[in-house]
Amino acid sequence: MATSTNDHYKQAVLGQFEAALDMLANCLQRCPQKHWDGIIGKYPFWQVAYHALCFVDLYASTSSKEWQPHEAFHPKGIQELRKEYPSRTFTKKEILVYLDLCNEKVRESLERETSASLAGPSGFSWLKMPRYEVPIYNLRHLQHHVGQLSAYLRRAKVSTKWGWRGRVLVKPVTAQPAGRRRRASSPR
Q1: What is the total count of domains within the chain?
Q2: Where residue 87 sits, what CATH number does that domain have?
Q3: pLDDT-flagged residues of the chain (< 70)
Q4: Domain span at residue 150?
Q5: What is the DSSP letter of 39?
Q6: pTM of the full structure
Q7: What pLDDT is recorded for position 174?
């Protein structure tokens, strides 16, 4: 069976997304507790990570109307994304759980995209672009914040790792029967 350009696009985007999320996970795991509240710009380390994941979550949705808040991560619903500061502080463990949820959501989002859906509107009234640009826009935003977190840690003499490519090398984006989904292991 021939692989379509659409499948190549989805595999490439997923590979880069998972690499960026792996880099974020590395920053979170390597952040010493004494730096968890360290300031990046004017926000604590944990909040920069939380903010990045909130928007990964949002833009992995088909539209702003389709996005559903997670009770554990968005206690105040959409206001968590609209307000400058979240309603509460999040622990490292909580942010890592949210990261895993976002990683799975990105995978599922890309799996359900079709040539027609990717050629359609973004699904977000404030993003005047076709849907195929949304994952790239989302990835740029995520990587911007991963860069901030990584630079902060390096200045604190904490090494971080570069993510070459995500799990897509092991498991390409393909539809799977319900109940048979399994996260692929990292090629590292």
Answers
A1: 1
A2: 1.20.120.450
A3: 1-3, 164-188
A4: 31-168
A5: E
A6: 0.85
A7: 46
